[in-house]
Amino acid sequence: MPTNGLHQELKVQFGLVNDTGRYLTAENFGFKVNASAPSLKRKQTWVLEPDPGQGCAVLFRSSHLGRYLSAEEDGRVACEAERPGRDCRFLVLPQPDGRWALRSEPHGRFFGGTEDQLSCFATAISAAELWTVHLATHPQAHLLSVSRRRYVHLCAQEDEMAADSDRPWGVDALITLIFRSRQYCLRSCDSRYLRSDGRLVREPEPQARYTLEFKAGKLAFKDTDGHYLAPVGPAGTLRAGRNTRPGKDELFDLEESHPQVVLVAANHRYVSVRQGVNVSANQDEELLHETFLMQIDQETRKCTFYSSTGGYWTLVTHGGIHATATQVSANTMFEVEWRGRRVALKASNGRYVCMKKNGQLAAVSDFVGEDEEFILKLINRPILVLRGLDGFVCHRRGSNQLDTNRSVYDVFHLSFSDGAYQIRGRGGGFWYTGSHGSVYSDGERPEDFVFEFRERGRLAIRAPGGKYLRGGASGLLRADADTPAGVALWEY
């Protein structure tokens, strides 16, 4: 399995929603907590941590404040503790409908309430003491079986999902978590849902919905009958087993899904490592050897390309590009210049990567011409979820426009043509731009949008008129940003 930071476990962040549909919120002023917010944003995001005492208790840390939720003996609650003490320890009691009840471990009382009337003093569980878990982590990721150390992916020929891959390579390793009726569905890259019997179905029916449970920082998926998903048999087929308590076989890690791309050179051939260590544009089809994992360094914004053969692209003698490096270094970093539907790559020697007459790539050019330009195509996002600074992108109710500040998200479908993407939403309508920067989602004909991968995990989307899509105070998606930064960057 690739190392050196290629696959990072995601820190699971979430919101807690009470019975009235409001989110548990940690306020700056007085470190008070309330349940008044209608949507999941920064102040409503929490991280679950195991109790350092190795018991069954857990800690709730505010992602916003970096402080811990606590409950005193008289029921008063706050989020003030910089270090977890005795009053910060809670027991999570999952309920049959998927919600959680939170009980103070030292005091034995239940946490709940509404608005700013929260307390941890109830002796029994009522509707006011039940919380729905809403993941704040971006829902598109890789799923790693803890026991088998293998990744879950779609097996199209067997019509199943299985944990049998030693690396999350290709589009079939993308898993999208869909939030439905206080539960989660596992959606494959071809937009089907995993049922608890292992079948893949087109609709998120009740048998394809699971309650999320956390154990030692890992995820478990409990079906409607109280059994847990696990890899079964030699093939690692994913389905609900017999266990009614999650053990190691039933636990999974969520890992960040970096962009996987193919590049096409001016000779209309795919860049590949099929012929050996040389990176060359000499293939007519995109398969495993033509797919590269693209990672962007958060500080420099430069990127690396990792090949399926287990090596990073690296600059070698006389400007050659080989896929042989096992560690990230200055020579494996490339600066990406976004040139509309094409990209140019500048190596650490300050020169541009070009395609030589024999198809091999070399960083020997001082200027960008046709041989220095490449088409870069994202291949592991056939379906797309976008999140901005204020929330997820979702269809606005009763409108053909798009919200950018929602707690729930819509899944959009991508198609690709000549360096640009076409985006389809609910009902098959295409995204298009109108007057004054408006963006609509019910077009009959596709418009071309250019994706620019500007930061780790974030992209900018350039509309046909040259402006970038952004969120903002109105909560509507607009195409009127001049620069790809801030509200014009989207988690994908």
Task: Please name the defining characteristics of this protein.
mainly beta, cell projection, Fascin-like_dom, six-stranded antiparallel sheet, actin filament binding, about 500 residues, globular, actin-binding, Fascin
Explain the layout of strands and helices.
Blueprint (H helix, E strand, L loop, with lengths): L12 E5 L5 E4 L6 E5 L8 E5 L7 E5 L5 E4 L5 E5 L8 E5 L5 E5 L5 E5 L2 E6 L7 E6 L4 E6 L4 E6 L4 E6 L9 E6 L2 E5 L5 E2 L5 E2 L9 E5 L2 E5 L6 E4 L4 E4 L11 E5 L3 E5 L5 E3 L7 E4 L8 E5 L6 E5 L4 E4 L5 E5 L9 E5 L2 E5 L5 E4 L5 E5 L9 E4 L4 E2 L7 E4 L6 E5 L5 E6 L2 E5 L5 E4 L5 E5 L6 E6 L2 E5 L5 E3 L7 E4 L8 E2 L1
Antiparallel strand pairs: 1-4, 1-12, 2-3, 4-5, 6-7, 8-9, 9-12, 10-11, 13-14, 13-16, 13-24, 14-15, 16-17, 18-19, 20-21, 22-23, 25-28, 25-36, 26-27, 28-29, 30-31, 32-33, 34-35, 37-40, 38-39, 40-41, 42-43, 44-45, 45-48, 46-47
